[in-house]
Amino acid sequence: MKTAALVADLVTEFKTHGRIVIVGASLAGLRAAEALRDEGFNGSLTIIGDEKHEPYDRPPLSKQVLKGWVRADHTKLPRMRKVDAEWRLGVAATGLDRKTKQVRLANGDQVPFDRLLIATGVRSRPWFNPKEGALDGVFTLRTSDDSGRLQAALAAKPGRVLIVGAGFIGSEMASVCRELGLAVTVAERADAPLIGALGGVIGDIAAEMQRDFGVDLRTGVSVEALVGDVKGHVRRARLSDGTTLDVDVVVASLGSIRNTEWLEGAGLATGFWGVACDAGCRVFDINGVVTDSIFVAGDIARAPHVLYEYQFLALEHWDNAVLGGKVAGHNMVSLEADRRPHLPLPSFWSGQFGVNIKGVGVGPFGDEIVITQGSIKDRRFAAAYGRRGRIVAAVTFNHGKWLEYYGALIERSAPFPPPAPGYDQAGDMKPIPARFPDPRVPTGVPDVVLTGHDPNERGAEYRPKKRGPVGEVKRAA
Amino acid sequence: MTPKTAYAEADEVQNGMTPETAWAEAMKFENRANPYSFFDELRKTPVARVAKGTYAVTGYRELLALAHDPRVSSDISHSPLSAKPAAGAESPAGAEHMKAYGKEPSMILSDPPDHDRARRQAMRHFGPPHTPDLIPSMETDIRKLCNHMLDKAKGKTRIDVVQDYAYPVPVAVICKILGVPLEDEPTFHAWIHDMMAGIDLGPELATEEGKVRSEKAKASAAELTKYLAGLIDGFLRKPGQSMLSKMVNDDGPDGPMSPKEAASNATLLLVAGHDSTVNTISHCVLTVLRNPGSFELLRSRPGLIPGAIEEVLRVESAVQFFPSRSALADIEIAGTVIPKGAAVFLMYGAANRDPSRFPNPNHFDPERRDNEHFGWGSGIHTCFGGPLARLEVNVAFETFLHRVENPRLVVDPPPYRQSNVFRGPQHLFIDYDRIRD
After folding, report:
1. Nearest by CB to B111, which of A408, A419, A424?
2. Does the residue A462 lie in any domain?
3. Tell me: the pLDDT tens digits for B398-418?
């Protein structure tokens, strides 16, 4: 009883006088801060962000903002409550000293903490050739500043836009270009758009959508060089098939890089795929020992997931940031018995070419697909992914109201193929290969990645390529 | 009888009740004011066989799953409720009523792809992205109408909230949107009243009176659809700006809606476009007056009104269930197998009080969080007019809270309407000190 009382006192003491630092002032960091205050944490709370902006929402940046409907600086996140935090915005964290429990900032300040949340997320993978990347008219899209600049460039009616990489963001940008009446070429190294996340069967449908919308889609090619004019503005692109394109705007949409550099030397399990943690958001150290005072949430976290054979799952999804932030906040001020797991059923949405695409689960975990409901021709359908007779993911095109059903099936690893619907069947319900690219073949890095069982990714090695837009992941045999 | 006695009696009766009995009790007219204790009893088997070929779903999780299950059909022609009973066989309760919504199935009685197409054809002229301004543009009229009704209540100290406040506003609004002349209201009001009275799956259906109501409902539904078909015919000859006119003249990607289908959907939109709104406004007033302190709370903090309305919809769902659904395959759920062909009733009002989903479920908490109730349905048939209804109820409730001084219920529970599907007070008399300017 005595010990229990002591521990209870400690919790009260920590909630009153503790110091919590959140590094990363975006969606996960903000929701974690709100959760901490909801949990009755009244101690000091410091939120550090390298951007000067208050937390803002990113999904509109590739859609409504580029279309010119919403200003780039008008996507601030709604606040769920007052967080009463000290905001250190516009200054990046550059180091973590676990012995003295301090975060080092770019301006030399040291911020002490009792508990730390890592929520530094990801950044755009830059153009592989820095000189070419520095040309006027060459963009990446991740931040609201990026979006504002790109929107201005598109509003200036460029002759042709080249988008390199046909993942979700690249495809959404191509859609916006067409809606703005701009000529646009999309260059993708893989055989189809969205192939990393959704596989070749769906990728082919996405390709058709792009072409029907007037996108000049080129698959199986990479962009080898960008050429500028005398004023340093990009004017030409050279493709791997030997063709050249006259372009005024180039957007490199090559996936993301996890912002882990500042954690170098901290002895945490960090790497190419982010910061490894347990299902309760507690970070592992380099030896796979779980830490007590360091937590992680959002795009940068990778955690073992029960639905996917306990592989570490890295998720660049909006709701993963929200829910992960909340769970991290809760667990940072809770004792063992009250801790909660963050085991989200991954879900995402995208809007492109007049189609609302939504998904649940992890498609690339599967190897088969069956189109279950609706009509591919009308681009209104639902499809399920399976692996060894179990359903692992589903995707809908303009059919999102059905996702709930598939989500429930995935959560209980129901048999695949799922039972035939009673109406509006898409076909014969016969599974076919989903055609995901070999994970070892570098294409655009998908935004859901199963990263193996090892907290330290010892089986994986990242080697930047000299040429080509993305890095190579080589797995040990 | 005070509500307290009603609860106490129910408690005594329900021990050891079979699902069949609990269901029959919940559907009985005498229990219309408070069917919930019987729903609690029923929920002990979240998916239960309650009559021949009929399964009632009262658990939240189970309802959520079935509302999204593509093996559950809303096409009434698949349901045993619409089947001609075989000679000597007992027809499941409620048989003919659901056809009251018209012969050509409206969207609420259809499955994809027809449902999806019809909903798109109608939604183009009602909401975003094609018609984003229609609903917001109604706000001024709604506010004016609400104030007008309360102005009329000045100098009195008693009104019937249903007749004198809740009914006139939504009916005027839906008429304007659809293009139905408000002068015809006395005519169609009677038809709709009879129609709704016939949508009753309780044991009274089998009585002489019930059969008369049922016949009258069918006849009235036919009259109403005929009347609307006449209007639509006029719009085909002389197109106008109303929603019904646009539905049959539109040249959108799905083309115009066929006149027959438009007539069925017009019946649906006209009826559903005000009836449940009336019930919800009445239930808002009833609920706050039943719960001491909540009237003052909402009056002083109007920011809580939208959430409070959702809470009213949770505890007093205006559509308690919609009895068109049936199983197209054997469906195993929560330890029950719903056999192929059985009617499936998703009991929104019951699932909304599932204690495994909503803590303290019988308690009205205007500040309740995480309140994802089924008051608007769930899945592809989720309330089409919800955004309009939300606006109407918000303005009406806010105006009432703001202007009516010291309102008191005259009788509690108030007399209820016949239908156990579209559930709401027949009258709701309140006394008050005065109407503020």
Report:
1. A424
2. no
3. 999 999 999 999 999 999 999
